[in-house]
From TrEMBL:
InterPro entries referenced in this protein's UniProt entry, alphabetically: AraC_XylS_family_regulators, Homeodomain-like_sf, HTH_AraC, HTH_AraC-typ_CS, Tscrpt_reg_AraC-type_HTH
Protein name, UniProt field: Helix-turn-helix DNA binding protein
GO MF entry, a single one: DNA-binding transcription factor activity
Keywords per UniProt: DNA-binding, Transcription, Transcription regulation
Superkingdom of origin: Bacteria
Annotated organism of origin: Streptomyces rapamycinicus (strain ATCC 29253 / DSM 41530 / NRRL 5491 / AYB-994) (Streptomyces hygroscopicus (strain ATCC 29253))
Length: 330
């Protein structure tokens, strides 16, 4: 299964996705589809590497990729092993960043000592003067960013910046890249410029290992990262704006200001998401969980408070809602 979002006529943006992990898919033809999508949407100035034949013949991956001017990023989840075909020559002069969520991503240069393995939960950012070989074990999930060298090389020099993928700066960069992909088709010229500038600014914050919390362009990325972090802690009684600010290494005022720019309250977002997940749990449990159990699990003060906010949002109490959807006996 493939999907192309279409490239701009001037080549300023493009996106595509491919999925050969769906049941019944024949992976043999999907590498060619991936290559066609890459060449059509991202290939101008960003040529795709050559892969081993055993990789192209068993290409079981789920991937999406996007380009914003001279910057690109790829999300890749591979069910099969991935390896480039051979040692590469020439000059690349690009900054690459790898954020590994699962598995391991190994990079190798022309010399034996130029070999790095990025483990799950880690990232690597460095300037690359010549193309590198890479390989990944099956079941590897990685986000790869290809960045222009100009703004980043002075910060990096010859060093590689590595660290945990859940650091505040990396979370912000990943959240913004995800947001750019989701909104890609609706971006006009000004949006493309803003997306590009913010991605570069956030990549520089990773290189500096600090976030510029007075830069207003970064507010949407900060809000997005906070939402992602909150979503993963909805059942945690410690979840609060203060905890999120601490985890993202920004002041509480900066975090609240980012949500104000987005036109919402962080407290309201947490309450809404907890209520939404409680409603889904109510449906999934088919009445097996009591109202008090749902309230406790999703960190509502008590069942009365849970019932009150549920009814205000959905127009029915949890019991009435379950009965109306056929989840409980009449």
């Amino acid at each position: 299964m493939t999907n192309g979002a279409g490239a701009e006529a001037d080549g300023s943006r493009g996106a595509f996705s491919v999925d050969s992990t769906v049941p019944g898919a024949a992976p043999q033809g999907f590498f060619q589809a991936f290559q066609r999508g890459w060449d059509a949407e991202l290939g101008d100035g960003l040529p795709l590497r050559s892969f081993n034949r055993d990789v192209t013949g068993d290409f079981r991956v789920r991937s999406r990729a996007a380009k914003v001017r001279d910057l690109a990023f790829t999300d890749l989840h591979s069910m099969s092993a991935i390896r480039t075909a051979h040692a590469l020559g020439g000059v690349e002069d690009r900054v690459r960043m790898y954020v590994v969520k699962r598995g391991a991503w190994t990079l190798a240069g022309s010399r034996d000592r130029d070999r790095h393995t990025v483990a799950a939960g880690q990232f690597l950012l460095r300037h690359v003067g010549q193309p590198w070989r890479f390989e990944a074990a099956p079941h590897t999930t990685v986000k790869i960013l290809l960045l222009p060298p100009g703004p980043l090389t002075p910060l990096l020099g010859n060093r590689a910046v590595t660290g945990p993928a859940d650091s505040a700066e990396v979370r912000l960069l990943v959240a913004h890249a995800n947001m750019v992909y989701e909104t890609m088709t609706g971006l006009g010229p000004a949006g493309v410029q803003a997306a590009h500038s913010t991605l570069l600014e956030l990549a520089q914050s990773v290189a500096r290992r600090r976030f510029d919390d007075v830069e207003p362009r970064l507010a949407p990325a900060l809000a997005g990262a906070a939402k992602d972090l909150a979503d993963s802690h909805l059942t945690d009684p410690e979840l609060s704006p203060t905890m999120l600010a601490r985890e993202l290494n920004v002041s509480l005022r900066t975090l609240q200001r980012a949500f104000t720019v987005a036109g919402e309250s962080l407290i309201a977002y947490i309450r809404h998401r907890r209520l939404e997940e409680a409603r889904r749990a109510l449906i999934a449990s088919a009445g097996r969980l009591s109202v008090s159990e749902l309230a406790a699990h999703w960190q509502f003060a008590d069942s009365s408070h849970f019932i009150r906010v549920f009814k205000k949002t959905y127009g029915q109490t949890p019991t009435e809602y379950a009965r109306s959807t056929g989840l409980t006996d009449s």
